[in-house]
Amino acid sequence: MTNHPHALDALAATDTAELRELLLDVCTSPAWADAVVAARPWKDRRALLDANAKAMAGLSVADLHEAMAGHARIGAPKPGDATSEREQAGVHGADEALLDELRRANAAYEAKFGHVFLICATGRTAATMLAALRERRPNDPATEAEIVRGELLKINDIRINRLLDDN
Fold first, then answer.
1. CA dist., res. 41 & res. 64, Å (int)
2. I want to staple 84 with a disulfide (CB 3.0 to 4.6 A). Which of 31, 62, 72, 112 is the partner?
3. Helix crossing, 126-136 with 96-113: angle to 10°?
4. Are the C-beta atoms of 154 and 26 separated by less than 8 Å?
5. Burial of 130 (0-12, 13-18, 19+ CB in 10 A)
6. For the segment 47-96, what is each residue's pLDDT rounded down to a tens digit?
7. How far apart are CA 57 and CA 50, in angstroms?
């Protein structure tokens, strides 16, 4: 992990309202963004990632739903959204039958849980995401909420590191 102290310092010094907006691009939960903003100053990258973890741990189920609302359905990256496209690169070139199966499995999952199937898709293929979706569908809502919390944490860590590395 490359260290970009100037990027971290610049981020920490950003106006509160602007920082909140930047963080909402990482995670669409206002409660999460507010908690990470409140954790300033971060002494280093690890402290910012720890603030992510602490904020994620404190989210209610409603907050988790707000966070999930910012994510594209697996197998259907948001057109023109570079983050969505990058994170779901594993579905590019997947067989159409596999993508159809993924769409059906997503629909069944969404009917059961009332939200998109959320997984840290970075580095995963369409087949591995489908397998995870099938594995998690039998979960009860409380179990699934905790799995989603863990997946969001991983996604946020990746996005925070990218934010720091790109600046």
1. 25
2. 72
3. 30
4. no
5. buried
6. 999 999 999 999 999 999 999 988 888 877 677 777 777 777 777 778 88
7. 10
pLDDT at 138 over 90: yes
Amino acid letter at 107? A
CA angle 3, 6, 7 (to 5 degrees): 80
Nearest alpha carbon to residue 94 among 68, 130, 140: 130
- Which sequence positions are flagged as catalytic? 71
pLDDT cut 70: percent of the chain above it: 95
Mean pLDDT of 109-129: 92
Q: Which of 36, 20, 28, 32 is nearest to 115 (CA)?
A: 28
Other beta carbons within 10 angstroms of residue 111's beta carbon come to 8
Which residues in 135-154 are b (16+ Cβ under 10 Å) and which e? ebeebeeeebbeebbebbbe
